Amino acid sequence: VSAQRRRGEPANSPLMAVSVPVGHDQVNLHIVDSENSSVRQALSAKLHRSGSTLGPPERIEPAAVHRLYRGVVGEVNGRGHRIWIDFPVLQLRWAAYDLPPRVCDGASLLDISACHCRRAQADDGSQAVDSQAVCVDIYGLAEPSQCSSIEPQAGEKGSVENRPALTVTGNSEGMRGFAEALSQLLDSREHEGEKVLLFIQKRLYQYLWRHQGCSLGEQALFEAQAVLAFNLEPKKGVAYLRGKLGKCTDAEVGEWLAQMATHNGCLDPTMLGTYFSRNDTLEVFKAFVVCLDFHGTDIVQALRRLFDTFKPGGEGQVIGRILELFSEAYFSQWMSAKESTVPKTAYANSDSILQVAFSLLMLNTELHMAPIRAGKTKMSIEDYIGNTRRVVSSEEVPEEALRNWYEAVKQTQVSVEPLPRISFAKLPVQPDIEGWLVAVLSPKRQRRYWAVLALQRMYLFSDRSEVEPADVIDLKDMTVCAVLDDKSCRERFAADLRSTTCSCFAVYVRRRVADLPDAEARAFEVRQRVPSTPAILSKLCAAKSRTRLALVAESEDLAEKWVHRISAGPY
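RESULT FIELD:
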């Protein structure tokens, strides 16, 4: 309703159309201006003629809709492109990597007749060198217009009707999945009518949400939200964990964190280390370190395993507390497997292990960090043995063990700055919303990204990698506003379309404002509350980060949903 008012549509247009179930049918309810009798009569006549409307299509799965909207990357005439279904305008679209499509780079879904997948071939007709490559042939399109980035297919024989108008070559799994999904859509259109396209168009947001919801169970969804909440702010993540997953005690929280950090590998090591540096997390860390498997490992391997899960933070007192609890856990497991652990040791208690752990971390610093910082001479093996002998006897730790540990640390540093061990794409993420957005930087500089909103972070994926996000916008300290709702936003957006503001986004194809029709109605702006240090697009545009960014969704309805979901916060 607000969008219609902003557009200044006449009062005789319907304010809303809602499809509701009545028995086994779906009936459209049109909400209109009650004072306009002519509109009421016209809509009543329309409802009388059409009767019940089509329900959800049965020949295409929600996952197929998501796959089509996400699209696939491949080569067209030797150039990298993304091909996807733009459901808001009911078109097949294509565009060069990360660039928004031009108006002429698309074809109506009503004009596509067939889609076939075949093994890729070389120019001479033989099998392609890459045996994993396949081609997707799309038939029934009109010949590409002169302004299209797609040239007519070369080397094809036969009439226009018999040759594919568009051929895309790419990875076997991705191409076959896209071709199968497109075939489902065409089959549904032919057997259930063209109205299935309108049904999907009006409910695209629900299809995307259902796809994610159906792929995960309730427990997995809660765990996904807890992981993302923890990676954003550990304290709130643990509160979410206690409230939604029933992990009420510190021991249960510690066990869950150990599971996520070791087997799932999806916790941010820096945030986990920050959490453990707090004084009130002592019992949680105690349960965490007990869950780590140190059986049959010497102390150097055990320290590597410990610091592979989190990055320790804080002062020396924090490190001391961490090593003390580690020593107790390691001693308990070493006792049950000491006969099979090499090099041989005879620790009297956990205090001995604590002293050895301290000496090894000092050695690690002297060998790998101190010389780099101050140009110092590296600690010799004699110095290390002498330092350790002051706190641990040879009966507990033989010299052979000390020499083995020295060489092990000298050869490979005990890293205390681990990286996350799982890609974003493998996280069990339940987004608040996802879809295509175009970042507007200037009239000739726009970028298209697949955006995923989850717990106040917007992850932007480039066409060049669907595994890891190209950049992340932390929305905690951001404001969001629809461009049409604010005069200042409209002025800034107009300036984006008039001037160049960022030179790091190189665009090789000439762009025009006409490539973003009705952009103002589909645009929204995210802006830092305190524009002191620019933090937006810090990876993609490191040379000149931004304090604000204008984004264009694929429809007014989706733009409103983006604004609403960002404004709603993480929970």
